[in-house]
Design goal:
The chain is an alpha+beta fold and 129 residues long. Helices cover 19% and strands 26% of the residues. The chain folds into two domains: 73 residues, no CATH class; 45 residues, no CATH class. The chain is built from two helices and seven strands, in the order E-E-E-E-E-E-E-H-H. The strands form two sheets. A four-stranded antiparallel β-sheet has the order 1-7-3-4, with no helix packed on it. The chain has a three-stranded antiparallel β-sheet with strand order 2-6-5, with no helix packed on it. A hairpin with a 4-residue loop joins strand 5 and strand 6. The longest helix is centred in the C-terminal third of the chain and has 16 residues. The mean pLDDT is 87.
Length: 129
């Protein structure tokens, strides 16, 4: 993730999610040199896929743009079994639909899938306000 400045409220929403790990965070000074931020300064909230910090406890970036880089790990895991069954079923439905309708050109080929697939993925969507 690349940010220009730290959010004032002290929370960074990680999208897409779910957040699995905060690997490292760096701030760049005005000369372009990177400085690693102490891992204790940012607290990952894995349930909400957010990173929390105290705004005055993290150094301000010296660059106007892209002064903060945060490396995170997101996703469900390494194996297919780590992905929830409802998401795997939605993927199978979309791929089967595309395969069966591979000769169609133009139009809305995916309209028939929107309801069933949307219902399968709805519990896993992360909406932003």
């Amino acid at each position: 993730m690349v940010l220009d400045a730290w959010p004032r409220r002290g929370h960074i929403i990680v999208r897409p999610g779910p957040l699995k790990a905060l690997n490292t965070a760096r701030v760049f000074d005005c000369n372009g040199a990177s400085h690693t931020i102490d891992s204790q300064a940012i607290a990952p909230d894995f349930g909400a896929s957010t990173l929390a910090f105290v705004p005055w406890a993290v150094p301000a970036p010296g660059r106007i743009a892209a002064g903060i880089e945060i490396d995170v790990t997101v996703g469900f895991g390494e194996e297919a079994d780590d992905v929830p069954e409802s998401l795997r079923q939605a993927i199978r439905m979309v791929v089967a639909h595309w395969y069966e309708n591979r000769g169609l050109m133009g139009g809305n080929r995916d309209a028939s899938l929107s309801g069933p697939v949307a219902a399968l993925i709805a519990p896993h969507r992360m909406l932003s306000i």
